[in-house]
Amino acid sequence: MSDSAAPAEQTGGTPPPSPFHRIADFVSLPRLGGLALSPDGTRLVTSVATLDAEGKKWQSALWEVDPAGQREARRLTRGATGESGPVFTPTGDLLFLSARPDPDAGKDAGEPKGSLWTLPAGGGEARLVLQRPSGIAGVAVAADTGDVAVVASAMPGAADAQADEERRTARKDAGVSAVLHESYPVRFWDHDLGPAVPHVFWIGPLPAEVAPGAPATMPEWRDLTPDAGPPLGAGDDIDLSPDGRFLVRSEDVADGPAGRRSRLVLTEIASGETRVLVDDPLADVTGARFSPDSSRLVAVRESASTFAEPPDYTLLLVDVATGQIRELTPGFDRWPSAPQFSADGTAVYFLADDDGRHALFRVGLDGGTPVRLTDQGAYSDLQVARDGSALYALRSGYDTPPVPVRLDPEATGQDPAPLPNPGTIPALPGTLRELDATAADGSRVQSWLVLPEGASAEHPAPLVLWIHGGPLMSWNSWSWRWTPWVLAARGYAVLLPNPGLSQGFGRDFVRRGWGEWGADPYTDLMAAVDAAEALPEIDQTRTAAMGGSFGGYMANWVATQTDRFKAIVTHASLWHLDAFSGTTDASWYWQREFGDPLTEPKRYDQNSPHRYADAIRTPMLVIHGDKDYRVPIGEGLRLWYDLQKRGVPSKFLYFPDENHWVLTPGNARIWYETVIAFLAEHVLGEEWERPELL
Q: Domain-by-domain residue ranges, the chain?
């Protein structure tokens, strides 16, 4: 086992048995995302990201998949800057976003921004149909009329695109980058907010292609959100009614002195009149989608968490004309998301975490218990055929990255085979199994366990405990950033447990860790490790733990509570909870659970790993990106200093230009190479080998 890492990176001789044995091969794998289904149900389009020619970034292109599963997938676009966001018009034309240059623009046109392009249903070259100096960030199409609305940012006080561009140019020419904030927050995940904010513009019918030399019809850009303001304004959570009469969107509003929540607002297109449709002072309401006849909406209600209670989710059915609201999933002990109406409007499909899967459900509008339609896997990007004959989605799991599948609209227990696509993995370096453990209070703790090829009682594998982030999520789907198969290819078994706070096991399971992250979530993890180490295929003398975000917090907590692991890797991790709660991008969210640290310090004191730093004996690899606004870099810097001054064997992998995630191919390779080298040193007993480019 001590030489297991070396063959995995060999570049000559026999080809490796899987793309996970060489990091370069893994990073080069195509990655599918998003789906669009044509109105007649004969065309299914997805976005496929691959490495660009220089290998420095992932670049997306549009591919067509045969919904019937008979033909091989074919590539539709080859723009130098990539394409994304496909959506069909009622006539079958394919719209997409791209920053490719306008072929008719002059040499002084400047750097192209994201614009709206179309591929005609009858074939031919892609054509530019809409552009704006600031770029276009999103698009919605009315399913029956083909009317279009787009999302684009605008500077405060800019009446039109020309004024917007003049204000941006004036700031640039004056060397001004400052932003004056008058409300909280000031940034979100990985980007600063302001001074420009997203607006929704009504375009109506798209301009038709004109003959050479003929005058082009310029579309009207009517701002449906003239009062959009900080911090988030009108985002991309929008939907147009099929008849083109209404636009619904989530609007971000103040909730107390420094909090935010979302409500639903409805705009009548013809008059521009906007009214609040759903405004719940105790919840966020998002994800609204229209019924096929445009008369109703379905939306997701997330109750605001409190010091005593975690959030809860349900679906709301809203009458557009009267504003009457009815709960569609009362008593359903799972958290629904991404709802869509059935083709005939008599039911709603939605997704929800359930027992370590992200399943597809159906619930009738007349009430009743939601019915789970899928067995294994995690589903996303649901598409409903307009004739009601089928559903399409991307299915993933720890045995497959996202691939397109066809589903029956009503059958239960489905686990469909993938449609021919460019993203299917040819081989995996091991096997996947499900593993249950019993927590100290008798609760079931579900896990996924990846076993490398050759693991047996005679040749037990070292174990890596991989802790998920969130914390209100669960291990259930493929992740390119957290792929256990890269470690499996190097001989490690990887345990992916869902401890207390994980969703998909009922609200009571979340309550077990609410405000007490260092209690049941920790003991649940240790119970899962105990169950894995009891297997004959696992070498309990060679184990490690790792995690990112909340998983990084738990990795830090593990380091302060036990020395059973040979090494710990902590990525984008929380270390000093009091400091984190005031510097993260959404402080109000976390302080609902933990309280104000000045007046209610108990939970911070009991659950902050930094208070127990003196107990750490395990070698640690700290990883953090400077552009991480969810868990600011100060957390990683403080942890690193606290380890160094106590003489704990440790390393700090720092990414000046990455955020909460590591998103560029070169840095992703370095991330995996460093983690592998660190584990090899401390778990396998090999000599430390510094990655070549570090």
A: 30-136, 435-682
**CATH 3.40.50.1820 for the 435-682 domain, yes or no:** yes
Check: CATH 2.120.10.30 for 30-136? yes
495 backbone dihedrals φ, ψ, rounded to 5° = -105, 125
Reference 65, options 90, 34, 95, 91; nearest CA is 34
Q: Which residue from 358, 419, 411, 420 is spatially nearest to 389, judged by alpha carbons?
A: 411
CA distance 691 to 694: 6
Dist. CA 241–CA 269, nearest whole Å: 10
> From residue 243, how far is each of 116, 223, 285, 347, 426 by CA, in Å?
22, 19, 23, 20, 44
Angle (CA) 211 216 217, round 5°: 130
Beta-carbon count within 10 A of 282 CB: 10
What CA–CA distance (Å, rounded) separates 306 from 678? 40
pLDDT, residue 337, reads 97
Residue 629's pLDDT is what?
97
pLDDT digits (tens, 9 = 90+) for 246-265: 999 999 999 999 999 999 99
| Crossing angle of the two packed helices 550-561 and 520-533, in degrees rounded to 10 | 80
pTM greater than 0.70: yes
Secondary structure class of 560 (helix, strand, coil)? helix
The letter for the amino acid at 480 is W
Strands 313-319 and 58-65, by their bridges, are unpaired
Tokens of 8: 């995995």
Residue 648 structure tokens: 């704990």
Tell me which amino acid residue 244 is: G
Q: Which residue has the tokens 């969107």?
A: 249
Residue with tokens 């993938």: 418
Question: Does the pLDDT at position 109 exceed 80?
Answer: no
Q: Which amino acid is present at 197?
A: V
Query: 153-173: per-residue pLDDT in tens?
Result: 999 988 889 999 999 999 999
Question: How many whole angstroms separate alpha carbon 16 and alpha carbon 22?
Answer: 7
Contact 141, 121 (CB under 8 A): no
Mean pLDDT score of the chain: 94
Placement of tokens 């402080």 in the chain? 587
Asked whether the beta carbons of 665 and 673 are under 8 A apart, the reply is: no
d(CA 528, CA 535): 11
Q: Which amino acid does the sequence have at 288?
A: A
φ/ψ bin of 177: left (φ > 0), alpha (ψ from -120 to 50), beta (otherwise): alpha
Phi-psi region of 682 (alpha: psi -120 to 50; beta: other; left: phi over 0): alpha
Pull the structure tokens for residue 284: 């966020």
CA distances for 277 relative to 233, 248, 289, 318, angstroms: 17, 9, 13, 8
Query: In the prediction, which pLDDT does 123 show?
Result: 85
Rounded to whole angstroms, the Cα distance separating 355 from 116 reads: 40
- Which whole number is the average pLDDT over 615-637? 98
User: How many angstroms separate the CA atoms of 284 and 262, rounded?
Assistant: 5
Structure tokens at 662: 């590591």
Q: Is 401 helix (H, G, I), strand (E, B) or coil?
A: strand
Alpha-carbon distance 482 to 675, whole Å?
A: 11
